[in-house]
From TrEMBL:
It is an enzyme of class 2 (transferase). Catalyzes the transfer of a dimethylallyl group onto the adenine at position 37 in tRNAs that read codons beginning with uridine, leading to the formation of N6-(dimethylallyl)adenosine (i(6)A). It comes from the Bacteria. The gene is miaAn. Keywords: ATP-binding, Magnesium, Nucleotide-binding, Transferase, tRNA processing. GO terms for molecular function: ATP binding; tRNA dimethylallyltransferase activity. The keyword Transcription does not apply. This is tRNA dimethylallyltransferase. It catalyses: adenosine(37) in tRNA + dimethylallyl diphosphate = N(6)-dimethylallyladenosine(37) in tRNA + diphosphate. Belongs to the IPP transferase family.
Length: 198
């Protein structure tokens, strides 16, 4: 395993469904000891075989695959869960002195793993209803002006007509008493690993 500045490599092969990513990954596994981590939002679900180009059982036996068939279709699976599961898999693969090979096309998952995500409190239906009543009564500028007073940094970053983001920013303040920027928690993969992606 090669290291640069004490960071082990993690390689990612990215692209749309049926573009040959899995074939390339399996070919790489013939020459380099590696395990594949799926970054596909459909492959995490059991029985989602049609239209997903899911690797066969035989292919998964030849080269170990992670994050495939791990959850029932009736359950939800968030990008936060993906990042936690992917980082857990990366660490375990590296312990075996193998190359973690990220393969897939769900760019939301990849970008969250690479760049980090915001870990914010969940949405609050009562607050959303209240905000919608305010918008209908006073217009979105009413909420935007309120946001400018409570969190000018976020307000300056947002379009004054962006109802969804303005409501979310106010919602976080109402729930926690703190602005969104306070909750920026990086799960950045690049802090610990050198990611090469193709």
């Amino acid at each position: 395993m090669k290291y640069i500045k004490n960071k082990p490599y993690v390689v990612a092969i990215l692209g749309p469904t049926a573009s040959g990513k899995s074939s390339v990954a399996l070919k790489i596994s013939e020459y380099i000891p590696c395990e594949i981590i799926s970054i596909d939002s459909a492959l995490v679900y059991c029985d989602m075989d049609i239209g997903t180009n899911k690797p066969s059982i035989i292919e998964r036996e030849i080269t170990p695959h992670h994050l495939i068939d791990i959850i029932e279709p009736t359950k939800s699976y968030s990008v936060i869960q993906f990042c936690e599961d992917a980082l857990f898999s990366i660490k375990n693969i590296l312990k075996k002195k193998k190359l973690p090979l990220l393969v897939g096309g769900t760019m939301l998952y990849f970008k969250a793993l690479r760049d980090g995500i915001n870990k914010l409190p969940p949405a609050n239906l009562k607050l959303r209803t209240k905000f919608n009543i305010d918008i209908n009564k006073y217009g979105i500028s009413f909420l935007y002006d309120k946001l400018k007073l409570l969190d000018p940094v976020t307000a300056n970053r947002l379009n004054p007509q962006d109802k969804q983001r303005i409501q979310r920013a106010l919602e976080v303040i109402e729930i926690t008493g703190k602005p969104i920027s306070f909750f920026l928690i990086k799960i950045m993969c690049y802090k610990n690993y050198l990611i090469a992606y193709y």
